[in-house]
Amino acid sequence: MLFRTGHHSAHLEIELTRRNIPFVKFGGLKFVEAAHVKDVVALLRILENPHDELAWFRILQLIEGVGPATASRIMEHLEVRRSGSATPDASPVRRLIEQPPPIPQPGRTELEALAEACADCLGDAPPAVQVERVRRWCEPVFVRVYDNPAVRVADLVQLERIASGYNTRGRFIADLALDPPNSTGDLAGPPLLDEDYLNLSTIHSAKGCEWDVVHVIHAADGMIPSDMSTGDEAQIEEERRLFYVALTRAKVDLCVYFPLRYYHRRMGLDDPHSYAQLTRFVTDGVRALFDERSLEGTEEPELPAKEYEGVEAITDFLADLFEV
Predict the structure, then answer these.
(1) d(CA 318, CA 324)
(2) Tell me: the pLDDT tens digits for 10-35?
(3) By three-state DSSP, how is residue 199 classified?
(4) What is the rounded distance in angstroms from the CA atom of residue 262 to the CA atom of residue 25?
(5) Looking at the structure, do residues 205 and 293 belong to the same domain, yes or no?
(6) SS3 204
(7) Same domain for 92 and 214?
(8) Cα gap 134→55, rounded to integer Å
């Protein structure tokens, strides 16, 4: 499975993990292993279980001027740890909202903003709405804490898109918390040779490799070529060569996918879904060489007996392929 950028496989990774389909990833961390994604998940865990000490400890140390000692004092003030002296039925999140602990500036402003974000996420708001609200708190914090904050915020937009497929925060957290197989870059090494597993790889990391069957996903303009690499003809030609690399990794079968609609948000209140356009590199002449098939449509009589529909179409196909 090949893709232009590491986060393009984020939704697929979570679905593969949920369905127990083993995989390894070449090129970048797994999505759920990135520090900024862990930060957002920790905040969601606090909302789901206000007494989650590890989650509180991680989130509080994102606040400017708050280290381990101060974080521990804040947790004591909020009564995060359950004990006999804790106020009956006390919720640390409620205490944060109603009785925020006194800390010096500039951390006080960020702590108050965190309390506001938690207050907005209480109730029955859909998981995607909660992730979007949490993201708005994280954005200025990530600018201060991390390198490449724009890339990290873009990952959170992707996380918001994934959350839109869930009805409850608990189920979303549970799927994200599943322990995925170790990538080949981890100390545990690759899977055993007699195990079936799926290779996920960025196109850059696939150079020099070949497989019998290759699936290229997100073959839509803005993804291939990347909308960050279309500033001039030289960049576009480099993107074309990269797409050529992807197509020539297959020895037997090649499948190229592009979504009819995809999720992104240009402005806060606009429709988060847009119609996709097939990559400009698949011209009419090239497209005529493909056998086309719609994963959602019924107009294609050649579809197999079982139809694969919706955003989970690829993982449905793979689940049947691996018989899980």
Answers:
(1) 9
(2) 778 777 877 778 887 776 556 677 88
(3) strand
(4) 23
(5) yes
(6) helix
(7) no
(8) 14
Phi, psi of 212 (to 5 degrees): -60, -45
Residue ranges of alpha helices (H) inside the chain are: 10-18, 35-48, 53-60, 68-78, 92-98, 107-121, 127-145, 149-163, 169-177, 233-247, 284-287, 313-322
Distance, in Å, from the CA atom of 294 to the CA atom of 257, rounded to the nearest integer, reads 10
pTM (2 d.p.): 0.55
Contacts of 168 (CB under 8 A, 6+ apart): 127
Q: Note the pLDDT tens digit of each residue in 158-214.
A: 788 778 878 889 888 877 765 433 333 332 344 444 457 788 888 877 777 888 899
- Take residue 148 and report the two structure tokens written for it: 């490449």
Structure token pair of residue 115? 């309390």
Q: Which residues in the chain show pLDDT less than 70?
A: 7, 27-31, 83-90, 177-195, 261-274, 295-324
Domain boundary among 177, 193, 213: 177
Q: Is the bond preceding 191 in cis, omega lying within 30 degrees of 0?
A: no
240, 317, 255, 262: which is closest to 292 by C-alpha? 255
For 299, phi then psi, to 5°, come to -80, -10
Q: 271: domain CATH number?
A: 3.40.50.300
The CB density around residue 93, as the number of other CB atoms within 10 Å, is 21
